[in-house]
Amino acid sequence: MLRAQLPRIFQPFRCNDLVRLGKNHDGGYLINSQDIGQAQHLLSFGIGTDTSFEQAFVDINPCAVDAWDASVDATDFFRGNRTFHKQNISAANLPIVSANTFLKCDIEGGEYSI
Fold first, then answer.
1. Closest residue by Cα to residue 50 from 80, 29, 81, 64
2. What is residue 111's predicted lDDT score, i.e. its pLDDT?
3. Do residues 69 and 78 lie in contact, with contact meaning Cβ atoms separated by under 8 Å?
């Protein structure tokens, strides 16, 4: 059996209250519930056609959302303080991230380069 280990920087810590947001399979994630409430902004890199995670997040905390994905068009989810950017995210065009920003990154391996 092949064993994988995350680099230390990506290993979770102080995660005592995990909740699942989004679909039950691809598109859903386990996150610490305290992080949801503390977020002032959600940056979502890679959404495909599934905004179930983002919708569940703003159902709990209606913070601003910015999402990037060049492979799809915006859905009805993006209105008001929710912005869609039809472009790929990379190290060259990363937005400035401030404190209390929650980052969801699912860009098929591109996570490591940014």
1. 29
2. 67
3. no
Distances (CA, A) of 88 to 7, 101, 105, 107: 24, 19, 12, 9
Q: What is the pTM of this model?
A: 0.82
Enter the tokens of residue 105.
């990154």
Q: What is the DSSP letter of 35?
A: H
Q: 64-68 and 82-85: which strand pairing? A: parallel
**Chain segment 102-111, per-residue pLDDT in tens:** 999 887 766 6
Cα 83–chain centre separation: 13
Are 53 and 28 within 8 A, CB to CB?
Answer: yes
Residue among 106, 97, 15 at smallest CA distance from 52: 106
Q: Give strand pairing partners of 44.
A: 67, 104
Show the DSSP H helices in the chain as ranges.
Answer: 33-38, 52-60
**Residue 6 phi, psi (nearest 5):** -70, 145
pLDDT (mean) for 25-49: 90
Q: Enter the tokens of residue 83.
A: 């912005």
